[in-house]
UniProtKB/TrEMBL annotation, chains A, B:
Its cofactor is pyridoxal 5'-phosphate. Coiled coil: none annotated. It comes from Natronospira proteinivora. Its EC number is 4.2.3.1. This is Threonine synthase. Residues 72-374 form the Tryptophan synthase beta chain-like PALP domain. The keyword S-adenosyl-L-methionine does not apply. The keyword Secreted does not apply. CDD domains: Thr-synth_1.
Length: 390, 390
């Protein structure tokens, strides 16, 4: 397994740099989100990706020392050519099925890297706020790393997420509020007892882990990126990560300067980033009383809002909302027509694709990649004949 | 994608052969289970496995025409080196995590091949009996193939399996009895309306699909097989399939004549094959009133019993039982110590490993591969703090 070409950490807001040898979370100058920067000239001569399976094939471009590379099988998920685009008359569609990750969601990628980095740099305990899947992913990698973890989740999160996180021996604290409130509790705990805070954009590892989704799409499509990528967005790490992935691949000479247009999807009842995008704002105001059946999109405020909005605009992208009813309807269509069992966030991407194809923003020959970010098994309460309320 | 080197079908009981061009299930001479035979000399000159991802890399050794190779991402699951063997003091342990498959279980492999074969050879509807996961896997591939499917499941199967199978638009029939009773209903339906019966060993595809687990282990261990493989056993397809996989790899020149000892694990409250193995029988009598929390092992009778017992004996293997309480205990240990969320069948393998290590049958330096055949997300009712009865 190769060394990492990590060179420094750089603030996404003020540009200040920080050393990679110390376990820090946010920018020491302004408190902004730190991004990992690599010696890409050096990396260019190396074999990236390495042969084999999963996310650590890209270890040269991840900020994790070898001793932090815990292996639960994250990454290497399938990119499924789907006949559903044809069936709906909306053009060639691929689905990146992130349910094949450990803990059955895309959150495993970010947590593998964040926790691996934290452990290798000396963390002794961890804390994370979560709307659902992130808690499970963090708990699994905490168990693999041997570090104790506390997660703060909204008290009405479906039971599946709580039971799974507890199975990995995480301490689960239920909070009267949404993930922003959980974030405050996590931050307070980190300040109080020194636990390393894994919250989105509060440390540089999670963006890096999610970046591997972009690496894999490029490789799986023969280094010819699709015209459009549609991504369900809570905090927005994935949007920033995909954009960063493509820049790094270009620097390595693996792709050219072409980029997909990125589409961000939020629930119409909790859409702070979409509202800010539409209004031309550089930052997003918190969304009041957000609620949606898609727990991963119940995020009223993103700490990385500026980075997310910037990446979306650079890509000539779009920001759209879909209703809960649409998510449920398109989840049923995806399951019955394609054999996938998508979470509502994944179904939201298909609903958005239909919307953008109908208005002509996506052309009929354009190649579209959707993300199914996790399994419906944690959302059984949304399906017909389920007697359990969730 | 390469052609298949399939040459003929051969009865595992009487040795009669049958043509590959027609969609048949069991031996036309004696009604026994048919096994796929390949032109391995020819295959030896070909590139097997092909590069890429998943089970269709092995298409040369699978009985499926190209038009039947539906892609939901089956196969290519991780083989995880686990510190749990060290922690328990029982030696080097790897876990083949089959939860990374579509429908989050190993059943996807067999159904991908069985349904792909059936569709390519002209089937117009499908039927399957199932104790749980097979129904979901069959339903997903039926949806992908566009074929209608009816599944018969025991009426007390956990709700998760029913909801998932119905999501893929399968018709789910609940039966007052275990899978043997479901099997009778499936067989009757097949005879009545011509639906192709996907029951274990009643058609040759499922063994072939599961064979890819053996191929992958060999490849992932650098073509040096482990000393012991522990496998949870309901019908026993996997045992037959692993053994067949290794014979074919040897014929291709990819491995030598060394073989792992195979260990079959059943629930102590439903252990027909273990009983027959211990008694030195060639066949297994049906188990009366079998019951266990591990739905995949609630199989009172295997149609492939002779093949399973034969493979186990040839491997110098063992057959052991574990209790439901042990499965629950070891599932908790695996989750909390390793970050996996195993089904009870997967936990049963760890319990069996501990048992065999303690009695010295597994030596301290021997490399052991366990199978986690599926996700605990379909068994949440077995975990602490779950309020839903399953």
């Amino acid at each position: 397994m190769s060394d990492s070409f990590l060179k420094q950490l750089e603030c996404g807001h003020c540009g200040a740099t920080a050393s990679i040898d110390r376990l820090i979370g946010t920018c020491p100058e302004c408190g902004g989100p730190l991004l990992a920067r690599y010696d890409l000239d050096q990396a260019r001569g190396d074999r990236i990706p390495e042969p084999g399976r999963g996310l650590w094939r890209w270890a040269g471009l991840l900020p994790v020392l070898p001793e932090g590379r815990f292996e639960l099988g994250a990454g290497g998920t399938p990119l499924l050519p789907s006949s559903i685009g044809e069936w709906l008359g909306i053009g060639p569609t691929w689905i990146k099925d992130e349910a094949a990750n450990p803990t059955a969601s895309f959150k495993a990628r970010g947590m593998a890297v964040a926790i691996g980095r934290a452990k290798a740099l000396g963390a002794t305990s961890l804390v994370a706020p979560s709307a659902g899947n992130a808690a499970c992913a963090a708990a699994a990698y905490a168990a693999a790393s041997g570090l104790p973890l506390t997660v703060f989740m909204p008290k009405d999160v479906p039971e599946s997420f709580q039971v799974e996180a507890r199975a990995y021996a995480a301490r689960v604290e239920l909070v009267d509020g949404l993930i922003d409130e959980c974030g405050k509790r996590a931050q307070a705990m980190a300040e109080r007892d020194g636990s390393f805070n894994l919250a989105t954009f509060r440390e540089p590892g999670r963006v890096e882990g999610k970046k591997t989704m972009g690496f894999e799409i490029a490789e799986q499509m023969g280094w010819r990126l699709p015209e459009v990528i549609i991504y369900p967005t809570g905090g927005g790490t994935g949007i920033v990560a995909l954009w960063k992935a493509f820049d790094e691949l270009e620097a390595l000479g693996l792709i050219g300067s072409e980029r997909p247009r990125l589409v961000m999807v939020q629930a119409e009842t909790c859409a702070p980033l979409v509202r800010a995008f539409e209004a031309g704002e550089a930052k997003a105001e918190p969304w009041q009383d957000g609620s949606t059946v898609a727990d991963g999109m119940r995020v009223p405020k993103s700490f990385g809002d500026r980075l997310v909005l910037d990446a979306l605009r650079k890509s000539q992208g779009r920001a759209v909302t879909v209703s809960d009813a649409q998510m449920i309807e398109y989840a049923r269509i995806m399951a019955a027509r394609s054999g996938l069992f998508p979470c509502p966030e994944g179904a939201a991407c298909l609903a958005a694709q239909v919307q953008l194809a109908e208005e002509g923003w996506i052309g009929s020959g354009e190649r579209v990649v959707l993300f199914n970010t996790g399994t419906a098994l944690k959302y059984l309460h949304l399906w017909p004949n389920a007697t359990h309320p969730g």
